[in-house]
Design goal:
Length: 69
């Protein structure tokens, strides 16, 4: 499955969350580190949901960019 990831820059690092998996978040000093950590976070999050007997949500978010004048 592919989930949309929202990345936000901070003063010293980046943070990210997945709109389709509430509570699944990660941080990293670089975008590359953030992506690695988010991949790990998704695996742990989904494993926890399975252990709790919860349904894994299908990704539904769509990411796009809009230009402003």
């Amino acid at each position: 499955m592919r989930y949309a990831m929202i990345i936000e820059p901070g003063e010293r690092n980046y943070s990210a969350y997945l709109p389709d998996l509430p509570g699944c978040v990660a941080t990293g000093k670089t975008i590359e580190e953030l992506r690695r950590r988010m991949t790990e976070a998704i695996e742990l999050h989904l494993d926890g949901m399975r252990e709790d007997g919860l349904t894994i949500p299908e990704p539904t978010s769509i990411a796009d960019y809009v230009e402003a004048a």
